[in-house]
Amino acid sequence: MPTRRALIAAMPLLVAGCSGGESPYDRAVRDLWRLPDLGGGGVPMIALIRAATLAANGHNTQPWRFRIEPRAIEILPNFSRRTPVVDPDDHHLFVSLGCALETLLRAGLGYGWAGEPELLPGGGVRVTFSSAQARPDALFQAIPRRASTRTKYDGRPVDAATLRRLEAAIGQDVGLRWVLEPDARARLTDMIVAGNSAQLANPAFMRELTDWIRFDAGEALARRDGLFTAASGNITAPRWLGERLLPMVMTKNGEADRLAGWMRSSAGAAIFTGPAETPASWIAVGRAFTRFALTATAAGLKLAFLNQPVEDPATRRRMAAWLGEPAKRPDLVVRFGYGPELPRSLRRGPQAVLLR
Question: What CATH number was assigned to the domain covering residues 24-146?
Fold first, then answer.
């Protein structure tokens, strides 16, 4: 069994081993994070599904399946990819479906196909397409550029005009609360840290999180899902070593300091609240967030989830009271600002998510 001293001594070697020319992982990222130029006619079903798989989703579990019908696509929940500890009521799963739905609709408009969504029993959605004028606008172009950037930003504020565009992108059904002022940001940071500390103290949460971490590029490339450590600016390592390093790196005090630093470096945060605690409402939250995220990306902003206070029930109740809406459930916490590019995560391709 490697000693703690040996594990820590190995860290610089692991970082150094990540350098060099373009790796197979880098090539896979380059091939994935783009929108294909179709060139021909017909409804580009596979291209639309490929775009939808680039949507934001919890733990990068990609909890969706797609079924192609004549002039229609169904998006269905994949409950085999649940995260029952962090998401016991499948809230994040249905928010993720909403993100995929909105991305699909935006991609359709870009390629010249307007989609009309219809909710299905069981939480799925059918989108029926009709031809329309192609609108490869800024939100369409932002689809392959959007990412969750989990690192420090540069602290620059966002101007009022951009904030108004972000707010307008959300629409009427989902509530938005800005957290911009220092006192409010300090209160929110306290709740983020409290929720995170509760999760770190839960062995079941840590086991589930570890299962979804991809500790090195080989594992991430083979699985094409989960949380690749390099995509959060962390070291890469073989799983056997990464699992042993994780408790040393992911400590209560260390994570509290990191989260506080992330919040201090951000321009602000946004809290999303849906109209009800139902799958349909959670899908609406995912759609609203995606419009917000694509608008932010088109404006040159980075963003990332800090959902710990909505994932821990006690902290979530505290947040709802702080927002003045104790009867409502805060759904998402998102920080935003100007920051660097980080390595991208991978996604499973259309053939892996298609139902036949």
Answer: 3.40.109.10
